[in-house]
């Protein structure tokens, strides 16, 4: 392993470990503050300092134990390319462990913080921005690191057009020919041995897409490595907006934090599947769009427009489109034949 690869490996590992630890420390420290406030308001007052430092010590012990006994051994096995972890290359074990070890306890403590304040008639902290944003930003960074660590970070990378051309655009070289009945009947005549029969199945595909060569061609710059970051943020926008709706005062101090954080966590499990996997479509509907639509409909019905209607319509349209194009179009009434020109 060269010096450049070693440096990139170290940076990726440090970023992922920081993303694993920091959200836990922040969320549990805020929870410890809430518990200490409850102790101070109790009758008779309890020892708030002891409760605070016990929770902080528990967070340190949790992070240390999980890092030594789960995170580091998993990273070692992935680095050694154990077949039972990365053999099939259809899932991401590091992402699964991250969501279980970091995201799950963070969401659990967010719910616990809300319940502690509700049961003690206290409104001290709603965990509105910094902790929630930090949790999701760390999850996004972990996703970006997992997707970009196998790419070179120096030199010219593949553009989006290059990636699309390799994946989707077929070659102009004919590799497969099938006899097709011509649309227009040929004029009867003697057959010429070895003559080619014109058919409508032979089509030429361009090998290179249109490229702009004018004075503003620098505006068309694109790189697949930068697109990874954009795709990762777009992948999480619906989950981010759902979690942010729990920060509304009317929602946070109610029982609605349970379905919000539970279904938001379930949507995070989609990151375990490899990007561009065929499973992402069905998982997106089952774990995100369908439950998110009902949760948002309930929030709007009980609290008003505490969540954007745009996202609710997005969830509904994606569910309807998935059902229609994958199932209803297979029915006889929708499976009509069309004339080919």
UniProtKB/TrEMBL annotation:
InterPro entries named among the record's database cross-references: Uncharacterised_FAM23-like_TM
Cross-referenced PANTHER family: TRANSMEMBRANE PROTEIN 236 (PTHR31453:SF2)
Name of this protein: Uncharacterized protein
